């Protein structure tokens, strides 16, 4: 099994196994990202690249009246996430798709978040434009990326990932961009980024 490819886009039995692994090793980072998102009652939130669904489930538990959609290109991850959030009914809806083509109308989400997934979005500029499109004016984007998160070429995001990402966010029209690196409980560091779709 090509482990890195499975982390980037889990497929088949190997993908399901990698999904189980991610559910354990990334749990505390995903919880950090959901905390950073700080969902407010009644909001509608989208997670992109949810993998095994830990972020969807954590958010659903933390914010009982938030409506949550999710998109991930891996059929195995959609199935795993659906099992994980089944108890929340139609309030949490994981579906197949990619960041570059989000199947929602304009301005429907109060917030969008993603953990260890933005480094895989291709093309990045078009994907960020899609995120901006589905966010309401004033809506926020929260991204978490492990320094060791796998990239499409089988490398890792690395300790300077923000140097490339932040200009792309500005270029896509986001404002209020804040970022920080913090220690990861897996060793190395993790990047947390916040950005806002301008109110007008
Ligand atoms: C490393 S896993 C991270 C899963 C989970 N968010 C976590 O942190 O444990 C990356 C996930 O992003 C998904 N993904 C890959 N390319 C994507 C894209 N272009 N748009 C959205 N999700 C993507 C993969 O299918 C995979 O489930």
How would you characterize the overall build of this protein?
This protein is of the alpha/beta class and 200 residues long. The protein has a single domain (3-196), classed as Vaccinia Virus protein VP39 (Rossmann fold). Helices cover 36% and strands 26% of the residues. The protein contains seven helices and seven strands. It has a seven-stranded mixed sheet, sandwiched between helices. α3 (27-37) crosses α4. The radius of gyration is 15 Å and the shape is globular. It starts with a helix and ends with a strand. The structure holds S-adenosylmethionine (SAM). Residues 7-10, 22, 26, 30, 48-51, 55, 72-74, 77, 98-99, 115-117, 120-122 line the site of S-adenosylmethionine.
Estimated structural class? alpha/beta
Annotated CATH architecture: 3-Layer(aba) Sandwich
Helix count, DSSP H or I runs of 4 or more residues: 7
CATH homologous superfamily name?
Vaccinia Virus protein VP39
In percent, how helical is the residue content? 25-40%
Number of strands: 7
Which regions contain 5 or more consecutive residues with pLDDT less than 50? none
Highest-level CATH class: Alpha Beta
Ligands, ions, cofactors: S-adenosylmethionine
- Distance between the ends: 48 Å
Quaternary: single chain
Mean pLDDT equals 95
């Amino acid at each position: 099994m090509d482990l890195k490819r499975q982390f980037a886009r889990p497929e088949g039995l190997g993908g399901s196994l990698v999904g189980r692994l991610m559910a354990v090793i990334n749990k505390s980072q995903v919880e950090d990202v959901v905390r950073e998102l700080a969902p407010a009652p009644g909001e509608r939130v989208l997670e992109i690249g949810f993998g095994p669904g830990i972020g969807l489930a954590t958010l659903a538990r933390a914010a009982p009246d938030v409506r949550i959609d999710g998109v991930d290109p891996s059929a195995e991850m959609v199935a795993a996430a659906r099992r994980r959030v089944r108890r929340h009914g139609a309030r949490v809806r994981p579906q197949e798709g990619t960041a570059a083509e989000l199947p929602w109308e304009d301005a429907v989400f109060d917030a969008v978040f993603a953990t260890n997934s933005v480094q895989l979005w291709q093309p990045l500029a078009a994907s960020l434009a899609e995120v901006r499109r589905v966010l309401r004016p004033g809506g926020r984007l929260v991204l978490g990326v492990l320094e060791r998160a796998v990239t499409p070429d089988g490398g890792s995001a690395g300790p300077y990932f923000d140097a490339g990402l932040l200009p792309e966010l500005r270029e896509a029209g986001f404002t209020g961009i804040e970022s920080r690196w913090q220690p990861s409980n897996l060793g190395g560091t993790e990047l947390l980024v916040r950005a806002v779709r301008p109110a007008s």
